[in-house]
Design a protein that fits this description.
By secondary structure, the protein is α+β, with helices and mostly antiparallel strands. The protein has helices spanning 8-11, 13-24, 46-55, 57-60, 65-68, 75-80, 158-161; strands at 97-99, 104-109, 116-121, 135-140, 143-146. Strand 4 and strand 5 form a beta hairpin.
């Protein structure tokens, strides 16, 4: 038989990578960056960020402000986090990163809400592919300069929105 306690947060590095990826891909305002067809006005679930803070404090503690943005704590934080722990007043520093599986690079300049973000998508052939090879998203001081329309429900315009011509592209 098996003995001991299984703690996937300690024993599986992929789980840690999954939690980090959620935080690493955020816009400085705490919303998800639009990557291919993702919506650009959504936040990650606060409970996921709180679990990340509890299980991976070395990575989440000083970066948590990017995802929570003054939202109320969830039940998870009431029972698992020390709510008296002081929050950091320093601006959130998110990394420049390349996600090989997503073939997406996120470049950053500055810290906090007014920083600059450039996201480059390289959507290769095969699998769940979009016609947005080399599309880019650029935000400066909290304002989108070059963006993606994402999907607009089930509208006839989606045929154009999904095409290469509708994206901001590197030429």
């Amino acid at each position: 038989g098996r003995e001991g306690t299984l703690d996937p947060f300690t024993n599986y590095s992929r789980l840690k990578s999954m939690f980090r990826a959620i935080l690493d891909q955020l816009h400085p305002n705490g919303m998800y960056l639009p990557l291919s067809d993702t919506r650009n006005e959504t936040y990650p679930s606060p409970s996921i960020l709180e679990i990340g803070r509890a299980r991976y404090p070395e990575y989440f503690s000083d970066r948590l402000g990017a995802g929570l943005n003054d939202r109320s704590p969830t039940e998870y934080s009431l029972f698992h986090l020390d709510l008296t722990e002081p929050e950091t007043d320093s601006p959130t520093e998110l990394p420049e990163i390349y996600f090989p599986a997503w073939m997406n690079a996120i470049l950053r300049h500055g810290t906090g809400i007014d920083s600059t973000v450039l996201s480059l998508a390289f959507s290769p052939e095969g699998g769940h592919r979009h016609n947005d090879n080399l599309s880019l998203y650029y935000s400066d001081t909290g304002r989108t300069v070059l963006g993606d329309l994402c999907y607009v429900g089930d509208m006839p315009v989606n045929g154009w929105i999904k095409s290469t011509k509708s994206h901001c592209l590197v030429v």
